Amino acid sequence: MTRAATQSDSAAVVGALVIGSEILTGKRQDKHLAHVIERLATRGLTLAYAHYLGDDRARLTALLRDTFAQGDIVFSFGGIGATPDDQTRQAAAAALGLPLTRHPEAVEAIERKFGAAAYPNRVLMAEFPEGATIVPNPTPFDVNWTTVPGFWMAQARCPRRS
Fold this sequence. Notes:
Strand content: 15-25%
Strand order of the largest sheet: 2-1-3
Number of strands: 7
CATH class: Alpha Beta
Order of helices and strands: EHHEHEHEHEEE
Largest sheet: 3 strands, parallel
CATH architecture: 3-Layer(aba) Sandwich
Structural class: alpha/beta
């Protein structure tokens, strides 16, 4: 992965991962890439790279391990749902060598949204790599998942390449 020609060496390297086999097969259209480019531009940033990946835990783990080691700022879209094909949460934990743990605030948000229907599967969306911070989701692209949070990992938790 290389920096875009428009970014200086002192600028943050920002990448995007768009995850989901349904994107690669054409069953769903990606709306994330254009949105992240637009949002970064309002902050004077540009996207250095983007990857599209299917729901393949091994490939996703390897790519996440590499981006964590680079120290890049990486936005990841997709693959954190409760269906068996969604592997992003598990891959992030594996890439960091951390267990998945259930985040209490995320559980509360899921219970508020789905009530008793949160169990047994939707509550799995509250499992993040240990030490993750939740990202509130007030305006998602998919209105079916309103208020289900995502997560982020502080740079201190991510191993860096020497």
